[in-house]
Amino acid sequence: MNSLKEIKKPLSEELKTFQKVFRQSVKSKVPLLDVIMRYILKSKGKQMRPLFVFYSARMFGEINDSTYRAATLIELMHTATLVHDDVVDDSFQRRGRFSVNYLWKNKIAVLAGDFLLSRGMLLALENRDFEILKIVSRAVKDMSEGELLQLEKARKLDISEEVYYEIIRQKTASLLASCFSTGTASVSNNPEIIEKMRLVGEYAGMAFQIKDDLFDFQSNGQTGKPSGIDIKEKKMTLPLIHLLDQSGYIEKRKIIHTIKRHNEDPKKVEWLLQLVREAGGLEYTERKMLEFKIKSLDLLNEFPDNNARNSLADLIEFVTERAK
Fold first, then answer.
1. Is 172 within 8 Å of 208 (Cβ atoms)?
2. In this structure, what are the phi and psi dihedrals at residue 97, rounded to the nearest 5 degrees?
3. Is 239 exposed, middle or buried (0-12, 13-18, 19+ CB in 10 A)?
4. Which element (helix H / strand E) includes 11?
5. Rounded CA gap, 208 and 133, in Å?
6. What is residue 143's DSSP assignment?
7. How many CB atoms lie within 10 A of CB 163?
8. CB neighbour class for 123 (10 Å; exposed up to 12, middle 13-18, buried from 19)
9. Do the beta carbons of residue 150 and residue 171 sit within 8 Å?
10. Bridge-partner residues for 132, per DSSP?
11. Residue 158 region, left (φ>0) first, then alpha (ψ -120 to 50), else beta?
12. Closest CA to 208 of 49, 54, 8
């Protein structure tokens, strides 16, 4: 598997240009807002989403101004949702740094998130990127619905595998899907190709989230033990859902009671982690993750072979095989 550094290399200049466009898009005449935006810019992650946008565009044409705006719009929307998520979750950290709401309190954090959303919409509207705005707006709608569906189902904790897939399709996969479809839409107006690329991204996003579920049950570098954070936060992930499916009525009630009432007890959490392992939950989850990854790659490989397609395949491999 190629490293992220190797995958990024052919797009090094484009990524530099993207950074300039993104920085310019979040400038404000309000000093406080400008300070917050500069703080947010310092904590940007691996730039995975712009990579998906650029390579999707490269598959069907040349990267252009519309492609840069598509990548910027997605990054603005994504950053806004992260800022708002931290308020909702009352989180004080994001990527190892203090969250916006911790430093500037909730009201300012919500307004900063609103600013990012509005900047994204205006960027698209001012340049008449209506198709791209439509795709990303739909993704934001799906993400909100996915979050609310998860909150609604979290009360009972008895989530079916089917409902779980719908939650992660909306919550996580929809944004990755929009990277593929907006990149394509920036160079092509063929609706069939745009939709097919959206599906490639959706399947990759499903695999990405399922891989994320596995991290909670795997040993981390600091303690050598699984974190169990999802259990502590009462999140029903695929390994847990598989365990419940394999359990009888009495045991199922005991498991759900433990997640609801004893999710902060380290011994009880370890007991649950052990039950998941014994029920084959990790192997089952790994298998499902691979199924979605293969679906994504198979669909991608139906397109003509070129360097951009190969780089996208490498990226899909990277996000599903990553160590964290």
1. yes
2. -120, 160
3. buried
4. none
5. 24
6. H
7. 15
8. buried
9. yes
10. none
11. beta
12. 49
Q: What is d(CA 241, CA 281) in angstroms, rounded to the nearest whole number?
A: 8
CB proximity list for 65: less than 8 A, separation 6 or greater? 127
Task: Take residue 187 and report the two structure tokens written for it.
Answer: 């160079």
Structure tokens at 177: 């899907």
Catalogue all structural domains in the chain, each as residue range(s) with its CATH number.
14-212 (1.10.600.10), 224-293 (no CATH)
Residue with tokens 């492609």: 67
For residue 222, what are its two tokens? Answer: 């600091």
Q: What is the dihedral of CA 264, 268, 272, 277, to 10 degrees?
A: 120
Q: Are 89 and 232 in contact (CB under 8 A)?
A: no
pLDDT number for residue 221: 42
β partners of residue 219: 226
Phi/psi at 63 (5° precision): -60, 130
Q: What angle (nearest 5°) sits at the alpha carbon of residue 276, between those of residues 275 and 278?
A: 65
Q: Quick check: 43 and 94 in contact, CB under 8 A?
A: yes
Cα–Cα distance list, 301 to 152, 310, 321 (Å): 38, 9, 19
Q: Is 94 helix (H, G, I), strand (E, B) or coil?
A: strand
The answer to whether 203 touches 293, Cβ cutoff 8 Å, is yes
The per-residue pLDDT for 224 is 39
Stated pTM of the model: 0.90
Amino acid letter, 183: G
CB 171 within 8 A of CB 237: no
Angular region, 44: left φ>0, alpha ψ -120 to 50, beta rest: beta
Q: What is the mean pLDDT of each run of 10 residues along the chain (324 residues)?
A: 85 91 88 88 80 96 95 91 84 80 89 91 92 93 89 76 92 94 96 96 95 75 49 78 87 82 77 87 93 97 94 92 68
Segment 149-174, tens digit of pLDDT: 888 877 777 688 999 999 999 999 99
For residue 271, how many other CB atoms are within 10 A of its CB? 15
